[in-house]
């Protein structure tokens, strides 16, 4: 079956008592057992029956099963946010005295999680230019514990050679962890690329019209400690498991993911091509321009000055001034003064985050309406 079909018809774990077609929201904290013996088995993890919803809930399990059916992953874990998914995955491998090897182009909060929060616990960071993998190969820290990259970086839209990066990681026995939020996981052949653990914010494409926050860990089974620590330790001790209401909404979101993505990515490509012809736009950055096909629904434009970016944002009538990505509504933001506001100008320079850049997230509107809004906002 094709992914579109599987996304609609993933079987339930158990037949629903009423034959419900949508998997019900199990809004319950605990579950009753038929006997003390079965209860012991469940608590010991020897049978896969839910006992407490901090650790397992049927609605969340159904969502995880559906993601698993659409991917090549061995294990899927659904958490409360993308940041929680990233934090848990890093925590599987990182410890005091060890070094996380990371790109200088990372989502602002991920950058800060590693260099501020984990640093306080004694974890070190090696911030490297992943566009020069030859140099990285020669300079990787001896005490490295993992390599972390983004598939398409946000907002620089850089794509590193993931296959090469995975060779560099694997010859040292290191896991390669990749954040694929910028494109649906169904479009990434993670196992083929040599990714060990894929992390993503399901808040973005999957939630379907920005209904809810969520994060996913897709574990390709190459490092058994991921499953062990997640299911035996972190879900219990940290408590960031997805809630059933969110799992329900995001299960519905998965059903329409492909049609939404195709349209949003086509909008992004069409708009990128149109904006290349607009004189006030100094540069259009969209990976699909080089690849000559729709590729993600995020693009950036550079205007002449920071002030022009503010004027542009304030003149938009249709496109919304908001953070978030891949809502059904198109969104615009000035990353330099918002997402990256807590970094110094020097730090932002090292990250290639510029004060002249506007990030656009393409929604489901008609592309000509979006183009007209942009052109009028540029004062043409
Ligand atoms: C939004 C985002 C995250 C964080 O996800 P949340 O669900 O907001 O916690 C992580 N990485 C990237 C690339 C993102 O765009």
Description:
With 380 residues, the chain is of the alpha/beta class. It folds into two domains: 3-255, Aspartate Aminotransferase, domain 2 (3-Layer(aba) Sandwich), CATH 3.40.640; 258-379, Aspartate Aminotransferase, domain 1 (Alpha-Beta Complex), CATH 3.90.1150.10. It has helices spanning 3-9, 36-43, 58-69, 82-93, 108-120, 133-139, 162-170, 190-193, 225-237, 244-275, 287-291, 306-315, 345-350, 367-377; strands spanning 75-79, 99-103, 124-128, 144-150, 176-179, 197-201, 215-219, 283-285, 298-302, 320-321, 331-333, 357-361. A seven-stranded mixed sheet has the order 1-7-6-5-4-2-3, with helices on both faces. β4, α7 (162-170) and β5 (176-179) form a beta-alpha-beta unit. α3 runs parallel beside α10, α4 (82-93) crosses α9 (225-237) and α10 crosses α14 (367-377). The longest helix has 32 residues, at 244-275. It is globular and about 75 Å long. Bound molecules: pyridoxal-5'-phosphate. The site of pyridoxal-5'-phosphate has 16 residues, from α4.
Hetero groups: pyridoxal-5'-phosphate
CATH superfamily of the largest domain: Type I PLP-dependent aspartate aminotransferase-like (Major domain)
Gross geometry: globular
Q: What Rg is obtained from the alpha carbons, in whole angstroms?
A: 22 Å
Distance between the termini: 49 Å
Topology:
Blueprint: H1 3-9, H2 36-43, H3 58-69, E1 75-79, H4 82-93, E2 99-103, H5 108-120, E3 124-128, H6 133-139, E4 144-150, H7 162-170, E5 176-179, H8 190-193, E6 197-201, E7 215-219, H9 225-237, H10 244-275, E8 283-285, H11 287-291, E9 298-302, H12 306-315, E10 320-321, E11 331-333, H13 345-350, E12 357-361, H14 367-377
Parallel strand pairs: 2-3, 2-4, 4-5, 5-6, 10-11
Antiparallel strand pairs: 1-7, 6-7, 8-9, 9-12, 11-12
Helix pairs in contact: 3-10, 4-9, 10-14
The structure holds pyridoxal-5'-phosphate.
């Amino acid at each position: 079956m094709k992914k579109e079909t599987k996304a609609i018809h993933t079987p339930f774990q158990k037949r629903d008592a009423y034959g419900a077609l949508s998997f019900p929201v199990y809004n319950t904290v605990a579950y009753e057992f038929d006997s003390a013996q079965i209860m012991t088995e469940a608590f010991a993890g020897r049978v896969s029956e839910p006992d407490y919803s901090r650790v397992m809930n049927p609605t969340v399990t159904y969502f995880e099963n559906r993601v698993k059916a659409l991917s090549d992953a061995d294990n899927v874990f659904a958490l409360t946010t993308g940041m929680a998914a990233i934090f848990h995955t890093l925590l599987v491998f990182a410890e005091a005295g060890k070094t996380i090897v990371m790109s200088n182009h990372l989502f602002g909060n991920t950058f800060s999680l590693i260099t501020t929060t984990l640093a306080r616990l004694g974890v070190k960071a090696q911030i490297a230019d992943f566009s020069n993998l030859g140099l990285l190969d020669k300079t990787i820290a001896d005490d490295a514990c993992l390599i972390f990259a983004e598939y398409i970086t946000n907002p620089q839209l850089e794509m590193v050679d993931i296959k090469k990066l995975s060779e560099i990681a694997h010859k040292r026995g290191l896991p390669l962890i990749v954040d694929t939020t910028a494109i649906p996981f169904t479009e990434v052949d993670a196992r083929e690329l040599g990714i060990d653990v894929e992390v993503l914010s399901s808040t973005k494409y999957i939630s379907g019209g920005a209904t809810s926050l969520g994060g996913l860990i897709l574990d390709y089974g190459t490092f058994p400690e991921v499953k062990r620590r997640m299911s035996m330790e972190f879900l219990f001790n940290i408590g960031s498991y997805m809630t059933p209401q969110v799992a329900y909404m995001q299960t519905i979101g998965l059903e329409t993911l492909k049609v939404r993505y195709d349209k949003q990515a086509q909008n992004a490509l069409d708009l990128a091509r149109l904006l290349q012809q607009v004189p006030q736009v100094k540069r259009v950055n969209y990976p699909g321009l080089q690849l000559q096909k729709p590729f993600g629904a995020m693009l950036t434009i550079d205007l002449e000055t920071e002030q022009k970016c503010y004027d542009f944002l304030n003149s938009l009538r249709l496109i919304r001034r908001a953070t978030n990505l891949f809502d059904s509504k198109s969104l615009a933001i000035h990353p330099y003064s918002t997402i990256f506001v807590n970094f110094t100008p020097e730090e932002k320079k090292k990250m290639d985050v510029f004060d002249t850049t506007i990030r656009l997230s393409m929604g489901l509107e008609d592309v000509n309406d979006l183009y007209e809004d942009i052109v009028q906002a540029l004062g043409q």
